[in-house]
Amino acid sequence: MAQTRDTTSNLQLLSGLLLPADGSDSSLEKREKCSARTLELVSSLGERELEDLTALATTNHVIIRSFEPLQQILKSMGNGKAAAWVAKAMQEENARITRALGFLDRICRTLKQGDRPVTVIKSLDHWPDLGSDLDLYTDADAADVVRLMSAEFDAKLADRSWGDRLANKWNFIVPGLPELVEVHVGRLGQTGEQISVTRSVSSRTGMAQIGGHLFPVAAPEDRIVISTLQRMYRHFYIRLCDIVDNARLLDLRLVDFNYLRSLGSAAGLWQGIATYLTIISEYVEAYRGSGVPLPSFVTDAAQFGTDQVRFRRDFLRVSIVPHSLNLYASELKTLLLKGDLRNTFRLSLLPGLATAAALEQKLTGSDKGIW
Prior knowledge:
three-stranded antiparallel beta sheet, five-stranded mixed beta sheet
């Protein structure tokens, strides 16, 4: 049996489809090289390669955004069979998304009863794609959230890990909904250490029309902070959707960088935010010829760029030592200097939690009970 091409080639193809050369770079040769590479990779797609590409696109939450241009290219090449295969994959994903949005709309309306504040975070950032979980933030009482989810949706609580308890989040299993519903209550961050960020989310939530529904969503700056927390301070890897989502916000010039810096500095996250945005800009530049517009005070605060990021196991991974460790130390120092002892203590538990998760992963093959 012939061996399929490596995952790196599929990453390059998806990136080329999502970040086509825009003509703004002065190097025509560079633009043509990127475009030619994308067409070369598309032309070599067989059924097995399409399966692998679909898996990677799904994992990175970009299947709709990448497969729409892929289908058009395949049609132009006269490869009707592959184009039909891609169309079917998009149809199945759109059906999942439509169903999930219907549930999400009902859940938001339910949790907002009695003027309870609720905001959809992370999941809708990928639109027209959708995350694998439905994530919400609320300032409501946790007991009320559990009661409403149980009474209105017959939802069951998923087992809570140590990390879930520290972060003050609950995962619900809703009958008829394949995705978990993850509700963050009153706190954000891996150990629930971030309070200043939650105040910003609650006070600046806006409404967005998505898929025929009206959803409460986080402001652009809060979206970037939440994404940074998840990518640079928890998982230590960046997905293609994170790059495309945030590049879109920045290209549309929807971000107030002064507010973002103020919020990030107060939370001890500014270096991480600046680094994250710089990585995104450099990655975008590698494919379309120009990065995203960033003020100099962002790039000056960045601790490293794409030179310290490696593609492994389906994602762009950031090394924990020393880079992520330095960002963690900066966040911890900020909380400590502010005299926020309670949240400093919560954050100080992270290294022990991460060590326990790594040990559990090695012994059992899963860290779900810890992380």
